[in-house]
Amino acid sequence: MENIKVGIAGYGNVGRGVEKAVNAAPDMELSAFFTRRDPSALQTNTPSAKILRADDAASMQGELDVVILCGGSATDLPIQGPAFAKLFNTIDSFDTHAKIPDYYAAMNAAAKDTLSIISVGWDPGLFSIMRQLSLAALPCGSVYTFWGRGVSQGHSDAIRRIEGVANAIQYTVPIEEAVQAVREGKNPTLSTREKHLRECYVVAKEGADKARIEREIKEMPNYFADYDTTVTFISEEELQKNHSKMPHGGMVIRSGSTGENKHVMEFSLKLESNPEFTASVLTAYARAAVRLHREGKRGAMTVLDVPMSYLTPEDPAWQRQNLL
User: Fold this and answer.
1) 282-308: per-residue pLDDT in tens?
2) Reduced to 3 states, what is the DSSP secondary structure of residue 301?
3) In this structure, what are the phi and psi dihedrals at residue 130, rounded to the nearest 5 degrees?
4) How many Å apart are CA 202 and CA 179, to the nearest integer?
């Protein structure tokens, strides 16, 4: 069985989830954490793994098979991604859909001797695969993606970056009438605003301009500007009491026809922990990245480029016998 040496960059919710997933994998060894904090202050659950500053990552070059990048898409990954891709095979969950082509180009340019699989998770990620699969199976039709009701880590992180915000949680909420119309095969034409609502719960710093914060949230491009968004200011105590869990989920639905016959394909997820599920998917693709790199693949890839048989520790013969 393979012994894949893994590094984790970032130790937030996703990073802690990756730690659990890697330590549970029979073919992986968690070897290093990279952090922007003081390494001596970082308390992990893997005492055997080294803890280094992110700026010192080059000292581990050649000792790790893959590094799983757990930073946010708004400001972390655009800088962190290419920097690590020059040194290691990488996996990340870059999820700003509108900017994926630019991010792919940057990672592809950086990964000259390495392999980087970008935008891994459940959307982008597993939902991307289902959109591709349903398009291939039902070329005459329309695809719809709904998210939630659940906590969006990327959108919550984007709010927390706003000046004057102490903490924040954002829920994505599908509009039920739109979901029902799609499931009934009506093939409605839906704008972004007609598919989802966004609910933001924000803890403002003392003396912060709440009107400005609310305006910046609602006008934020790629995150909130295209949605009906509500902003509710609450205390830190209320946030911790009522909004400390991180559930999520959603569905990809394709409605189409083959001649006179109509068909609906649906793939759905219901997650108690968005970051832990995302971490589990990242870890599976870390395995695939190592295998592909050993076969000579270089540059950037997405989940649409990776054979599914590379994702699990089971050998191809077992997969053919048990999964086909």
Assistant:
1) 999 999 999 999 999 999 999 999 999
2) strand
3) -70, -35
4) 28
